[in-house]
Amino acid sequence: MSDKSNKLKARLPRGLVDRTPADIAATRAMLEKIRKVYEHYGFDPVETPAIEYTDALGKFLPDQDRPNEGVFSFQDDDEQWMSLRYDLTAPLARYVAENFDALPKPYRSYREGYVFRNEKPGPGRFRQFMQFDADTVGSASMAADAEICMMAADTMEALGIPRGSYIVKVNNRKVLDGVLESIGLGGAEHAGKRLTVLRAIDKLDRLGPDGVKLLLGEGRKDESGDFTKGAGLTHEAIDTVLAFTAAKGETSHATVANLANVVATSKQGLEGIDELRQIAALVATAGYDDRVIVDSSVVRGLEYYTGPVYEVELLIETRDEKNRPVRFGSVGGGGRYDGLVSRFRGEPVPATGFSIGVSRLAAALALVNKADTQPNFGPVVVTVFDSDRIADYQQMVAELRQAGIRAELYLGSGKFGPQMKYADKRNAPCVVIQGSDEKNDAAGEQVVVKDLILGAELSKLEKGRDEYLQKQADAQRKVRRDQMVKTVQEILARHGVKTMMA
């Protein structure tokens, strides 16, 4: 009897997920659509590593009193702190600074990859998730920000989200800084409290005004009983901040006018108002003013934003697997971060960028049935009828692959029945069968090609009907050996299954 006392328990860490072939296929299709839009706008790819020196990432996450707060960190062999990246923007800033003289300015690039957050996981909040960014570094023009907002709108439509089902919302951190200055939170000594206020406002979409009010005051206890310490603002200061978030008007022009009234005495705030006016005018000229709007509720939670900030919000309401209402809210965002590259250069380097939360958007698209719903078919399976003829079957697989068809030889053990069950689990579109009868057929060597997709449809039809008989004839075809590849190609084409050469 085996000893199971030391058996290792298979367990997935909290806040992480395993991804299936269907998940990967849907994500791959999404990424390709996003990439085409980004390249259409003139952005080129670049890739940075998942690990950076912690000081290069900067202290931009909440409660980061020591290096491993908010990010996953460790020390390398020379005792320098290193961290897994928490976004794709900070590593880009390091890359641009390190290669500054060799890069064209403005430098336009995009990148995709996983980022990591050492935060408490929860519904829709993961410790590892994918982002897809595009950034323009080296331009102070508001046209760069307007362009990225318009590109965000085009990306949503490329992914199948119809106009009217999303909105790109724009605000300006200078305006909010002017508001905070008016309530006594200006200056470097109040940087920590300002960040707490920013993070509170950033939860407006999820918690509503009442929840944000608690976070601006003494604090808030969530459904699990966990308490989040608040910013400790006075009632008057809270009212001023909430008035800022409620300044949205019927149009972008009206919202800008309302915000101008809130920050009338702040020079910095009025600079932000002017930048918002420029962006609103640019998007209106390009015909995007129904998709890109000024909205005072947008602040973005990261500290490094210095000017315009923007978010893409899905307006679609749907239901989850338990029939509970779901509204996804923000699926992407970004803004201007003129100080991030400057940390390395010691000189002003303006920059602006946008990030799509791929994992979150994929979940949203799946629920609203906008994801790529093409079935994730597996390979064509060549079965093994005679175990002493493996070489013959391997030759069939090779011919299919040479024709650009995804194919595999059954490598397990067992009789024909288990092989068909295997092909079904692999979601194979068809199988190739050759026993001794087909090999030694009097009319010449034959193979049987069984259409499993059509076979699945047959199981839903009533036997005896003409349609059933016709499909039954099509579902299993005996053909000459030299017609095998052509027959498989016809089956794949019938069901829209792409080959490597399609």
Automatic annotation (TrEMBL):
Matching CDD domains: HisRS-like_core
First-tier enzyme category under EC: ligase
Molecular function per GO: ATP binding; histidine-tRNA ligase activity
Reactions this protein catalyses: tRNA(His) + L-histidine + ATP = L-histidyl-tRNA(His) + AMP + diphosphate + H(+)
Residues where L-histidine binds: D87, L88, T89, R117, Q131, D135, R300, Y304, Y305
Gene3D superfamilies per record: Anticodon-binding domain, Bira Bifunctional Protein, Domain 2
Keyword Ligase part of the UniProt annotation: yes
Any one of the GO CC terms: cytoplasm
Top-level taxonomic group: Bacteria
Coiled coil: none
Annotated localization: Cytoplasm
The EC number(s) this enzyme carries: 6.1.1.21
UniProt cross-references to InterPro entries, sorted A to Z: aa-tRNA-synth_II, aa-tRNA-synth_II/BPL/LPL, Anticodon-bd, Anticodon-bd_dom_sf, His-tRNA-ligase, HisRS-like_core, HisRS/HisZ
Protein family (similarity comment): Belongs to the class-II aminoacyl-tRNA synthetase family.
Complexes and interactors: Homodimer.
Annotated protein name in UniProt: Histidine--tRNA ligase
Species per Swiss-Prot/TrEMBL record: Pseudorhodoplanes sinuspersici
